Amino acid sequence: MRLFVTTMPKTGTHLLLQILTPYKWMPQVEGYTYINFLYNHNVIGKKSGGRAKKATLRYLNSYDGKVCAHLPYDIEFLEALKNKPTYIVQLIRDPRDTALALYHNALAGARQNYFNIEFSDGSVLSEKDDPLWWAIKLSPDWWKGWTPWIENKIPDLILRYEDLIGPNIRNVLQPIADNIEGFNIDIAISNINPQTSKTFRRGIAGGWKEEFKPHHIKLVEEILGPTMEILGYGSNS
Questions:
Q1: Would residue 236 count as lying in a domain?
Q2: Within a domain: residue 225?
Q3: Is 237 inside a domain boundary?
Q4: DSSP at 127
Q5: What angle do helix axes 131-143 and 95-108 make, rounded to 10 degrees?
Q6: 0.70 surpassed by pTM
Q7: Sheet of 157-160: strands edge to edge?
Q8: Could you tell me the residue range of the domain that residue 202 belongs to?
Q9: What is the DSSP string of the chain?
Q10: Were both Cys, which of 21, 58, 93, 152 would link to 11 (CB 3.0–4.6 Å)?
Q11: Count of domains in the chain?
């Protein structure tokens, strides 16, 4: 049984990759990166390198072992994954904390930072008057690439970032150990070292409660409700 994991950026990918070591990271797919889901807000976005879709489909059809990717949902990708026995895992995180992570990553990096998203007026996220508001505003379209995995009931296992940093991580990882030969939970947990990740900031859940102002919370209530419902995060949690 091979393992395939899809994660949206800023949902705890590096933590999960430490747990799954060794793994292969699949190159991004041209036209299928998260940035493409932001065009509805008139965002240009910097072009990212990637493979043609046909090459990616060949890769998904042929790989063995453990593979991870920021891969949005696509029916052809799914068909390629189902060509061989594959245990599909999706990592998710509270959209409010994901927006907060995007915001801090944009502020911390240079103008060319991958997450410092470029708008049609030439400005980038960190240059907006209220970049956190914009990070929230972009979130519904950002998630559109990954919610269909859940809506179509594709993943064999949905991992929550909050559970990976919680006290019951052993139970959370047990389904992977049950399905993937050679996966050792003790070794996986011992591999966790957040400080080795360049994108590590605080490694907590619920950080949005400390930083969201009333107008940020109002925006969440106005536009993020459907996304949070799909992902299983209550608006009052």
A1: no
A2: yes
A3: no
A4: G
A5: 130
A6: yes
A7: 24-25, 66-69, 2-7, 86-92, 157-160
A8: 2-231
A9: -EEEEEE-TTSSHHHHHHHH-S-EEPPPBTT-SGGGGGGGGTB-------B-HHHHHHHHHH--SEEEE-----HHHHHHHTTS-EEEEEEE--HHHHHHHHHHHHHHS-TT-TTSPBBTTS-BGGGSSSHHHHHHHHHHHHHTTTHHHHHTT--SEEEEHHHHTSTTHHHHHHHHHHHSTT--HHHHHHT--GGG-TT-S---S-THHHH--HHHHHHHHHHTHHHHHHHT--TT-
A10: 93
A11: 1
Length of the chain: 237
pLDDT (tens digit, 0 to 9) for every residue of the chain, 237 residues total?
Answer: 999 999 988 899 889 999 998 888 887 665 555 555 565 555 655 555 566 778 888 889 999 999 998 888 889 999 999 999 999 999 999 999 999 999 998 888 766 677 888 887 888 899 999 999 999 998 998 898 899 999 999 999 999 999 998 899 999 999 999 999 889 999 999 988 865 555 555 567 789 999 999 999 999 999 999 999 999 997 555
- Amino acid found at 157: L
